[in-house]
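Sequence in, structure out. Go.
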Amino acid sequence: MKSAKGPAIFLAQFAGDKAPFNSLKSIAKWAAGLGYKGVQIPAWDGRLFDIAKAAESKTYADEVVGTCREAGVEVTELATHLQGQLVAVHPAYDSGFDAFAPPAVHGNPKARQEWAVDQMMKGARASQNMGLRVSVSFTGALAWPYLYPWPPRAPGLIETAFDELARRWKPILDAYDKAGVDIGFELHPGEDLIDGATFEMFLERMNNHPRCGINYDPSHFVLQQLDYLEFIDIYHERIVAFHVKDAEFNPSGRQGVYSGFQPWVKRAGRFRSLGDGQVDFGAVFSKLAEYDYDSWAVLEWECAIKSAEQGAAEGAPFIAKHLIRVTEHAFDDFAKAANDEAANRRMLGIDR
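Output:
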């Protein structure tokens, strides 16, 4: 068996315009000071990282890795969630998702998609230049508005959506394959890949592409009421990254999974800081160890109640407590006898 690495932290929710959150050097030192061993870098945040420069310059890529190491942390992965989101956008979300792209492509879905694809291609080269073997992202969505089958869906609508999603992602995944980098897709509401069933629909259309992986995040499965432990049993071979994020689901007589358009703090399903929700992380880490997960355990902090500062401070010791140093021998090795075929046959009564 193998052990996960960590604790690590996703920097997206902490990056800002004030020190120590406004540069990679200072935020990396901040993370190390809290006990984190790794940082996941949001590849869209120019205050911390230049994805184009990292894709073009091995020198710059090495400098990024070196800056983090000098601060006391490793780079775990590049995250391209916002760029991946824009690979596929349903027209209903054009205005909202324009904010994820440069002003030059606002109001121009075709140009915005081309920009997103180019960003993803740069992410492959940047990851390669930095010596990373995994990246994490979103797939975007064409079918999401039709999640609930009312009015009844037009025949072939979902199939066409997934065919097109696969068509757009195939050359991107091929580029990551060439770079030797896996993509772990976060199965997330608002994407067409939200659970195991949709991942399988996509994977089938990708002809089981070797670089098509999963960024495992149990919090989204709590909110969907999906069995997040059995999910590991089913899809462990495709899990290439791990967001350690907590959540709770408390249905009432007024709301359930859909949470009635309520704000986060009043939703039946809401994200919580580590240890404040309902995810059984002892079981999660045990399952991942059982299946030889040896990449990073990365805190993605989101909480409807607790402050980011407190969540970050509590996250490192929480993950460290749950990391499993897998055993190198069986607990009952002391009682084992040497292999003796003749004795075994006698014990079984085979030669009587």
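Check: The chain has 13 helices and ten strands. The longest helix spans residues 157-179.
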